[in-house]
């Protein structure tokens, strides 16, 4: 079950935040922004402190999941540096597929929408409905 | 030296790519216009182009009405060409002069050329005799567009209405064409194209009807 989704842009700004279940407390917009900024920083540092890989292996992509006693947080970073972060229950071990689909929705309903400004918060009705369908079907 | 040869091979491969691209475009230009094979354009590619047209126009207008007028103008330029192409390709149709036949032509042939399907309905307005409505339940080119709340009166279908206006004009049935988003259950983008024919067209219709 996916509880919530955050989308963070390349510079660490929060561009989308939505809760999908009532089991999760709604963060205030300020808290959500702080979370996004902090996660962005930690993610960047994590890829830096990873033990030096061999020369031609690709660089570490940073944090992929964070586990706690009650939930798991999945992070999917696109080649363009946008991060999709989903908060799920512990049953979800792999979420790359679903997050990839969300990335597709972002490409379709945010980027191809003439009223969307790059790097800015996503306000698109179509994106909301399609995302909800995807989460419910998951 | 090593970097030099590397640069050379890179340049060579780039030239190869360039050659390929120019060959492909040459092939495109040599294609027979009358070939009935349906040329398809990627929806994503078109969506990006259309989004950019809207964004470009939006920066050069003052209000929603002006924006729609601008989009309609772009559509009209497309419409004139689509009309010629449809006429050339569809050997079975001849130039229509009557209002109803023109409408059917737009509803079926033009829609097939543009969107690869027929429009979902063609109705006459119950209030005015000179008004007709063409409905498309989900126009493909508007698929990815969400109009923000502060612009709810804006209908991106103005582009389509521009195309229709130009075609109606080419068929000697000039009309004022507007587009309206009328969402229905599960069809948030349902677009109605409203044609209001000029009075002289309606007069001519009456005369033609009487002389029959």
- So, CATH architecture of chain A? 2-Layer Sandwich
Q: Please provide the count of β strands of chain B.
A: 4
Let me know the number of strands of chain A: 5
CATH topology of chain B: Muramoyl-pentapeptide Carboxypeptidase, domain 2
Task: Count the DSSP helices of chain A.
Answer: 3
Task: Bin the strand percentage of chain B.
Answer: 5-15%
- Which range best describes the helical content of chain A: under 10%, 10-25%, 25-40%, 40-55%, 55-70% or over 70%? 25-40%
Q: Which overall shape of chain A is indicated by the principal axes computed on the Cα atoms? A: globular
CATH class of chain A reads Alpha Beta
Major β-sheet annotation of chain B: 4 strands, antiparallel
**Helix run count of chain B:** 6
CATH topology of chain A: Beta-Lactamase
Largest interface by Cβ-Cβ < 8 Å: A-B, 13 and 18 residues
Class of secondary structure makeup of chain B: alpha+beta
Low-confidence stretches of chain A: none
Biggest pleated sheet of chain A: 5 strands, antiparallel
What's the gist of this structure?
The complex is a heterodimer of chains A (138) and B (212). With 138 residues, chain A is an alpha+beta fold.
Report what the structure shows.
- By secondary structure, chain A is α+β, with helices and mostly antiparallel strands.
- Chain A has one domain (2-137): Beta-Lactamase (2-Layer Sandwich), CATH 3.30.450.70.
- Helix content of chain A is 36%, strand content 20%.
- A 5-stranded antiparallel β-sheet of chain A has the order 2-1-5-4-3.
- The longest helix of chain A is centred in the N-terminal third of the chain and has 21 residues, at 29-49.
- Chain A is globular and about 45 Å long.
- The termini of chain A are close together.
- The model of chain A has no long low-confidence stretch (mean pLDDT 90).
- Chain B is α+β, with helices and mostly antiparallel strands.
- Chain B has one domain: Trafficking protein particle complex subunit 3 (Muramoyl-pentapeptide Carboxypeptidase, domain 2).
- Chain B has a 4-stranded antiparallel β-sheet.
- In chain B, strand 1 (121-124) and strand 2 (131-136) form a beta hairpin.
- In chain B, helix 3 crosses helix 5.
- Chain B is globular.
- The chains are: A alpha+beta (138), B alpha+beta (212).
- The interface between A and B is medium-sized, with 13 and 18 residues.
């Amino acid at each position: 079950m996916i509880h919530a989704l955050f989308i963070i842009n390349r510079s660490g700004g929060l561009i989308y935040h939505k809760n999908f279940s009532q089991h999760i407390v709604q963060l205030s917009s300020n808290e959500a922004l702080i979370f996004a900024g902090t996660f962005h920083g930690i993610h960047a540092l994590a890829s830096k402190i990873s033990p030096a890989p061999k020369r031609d292996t690709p660089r570490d992509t940073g944090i992929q999941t964070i586990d706690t006693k009650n939930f798991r947080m999945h992070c999917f970073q696109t080649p363009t540096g946008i991060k999709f972060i989903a908060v799920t229950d512990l049953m979800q071990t792999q979420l790359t597929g679903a997050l990839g689909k969300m990335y597709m929705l972002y490409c379709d309903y945010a980027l191809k929408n003439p009223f969307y400004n790059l790097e800015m918060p996503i306000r698109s009705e179509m994106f909301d409905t399609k995302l909800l369908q995807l989460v419910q079907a998951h | 030296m090593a970097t030099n040869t590397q640069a050379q091979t890179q340049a060579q491969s780039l030239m190869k790519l360039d050659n390929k691209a120019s060959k492909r475009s040459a092939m495109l230009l040599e294609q027979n216009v009358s070939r009935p094979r349906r040329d398809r354009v990627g929806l994503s590619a078109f969506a990006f182009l259309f989004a950019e047209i809207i964004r470009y126009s939006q920066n050069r207008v003052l209000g929603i009405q002006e924006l729609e007028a601008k989009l309609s103008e772009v559509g009209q330029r497309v419409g004139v060409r689509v009309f010629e192409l449809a006429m050339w390709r569809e050997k079975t149709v001849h130039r229509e002069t009557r209002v109803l036949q023109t409408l059917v032509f737009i509803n079926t042939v033009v829609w097939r050329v543009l969107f690869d399907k027929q429009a979902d309905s063609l109705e006459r307005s119950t209030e005015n005799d000179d008004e007709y409505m063409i409905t498309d339940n989900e126009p493909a080119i508007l698929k990815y567009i969400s109009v923000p709340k502060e612009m709810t009166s804006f209908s991106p279908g103005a582009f389509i209405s521009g195309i229709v206006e130009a075609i109606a004009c080419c068929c000697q049935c000039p009309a004022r064409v507007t587009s309206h988003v009328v969402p229905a259950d599960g069809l948030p983008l349902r677009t109605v194209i409203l044609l209001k024919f000029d009075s002289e067209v309606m007069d001519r219709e009456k005369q033609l009807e009487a002389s029959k």
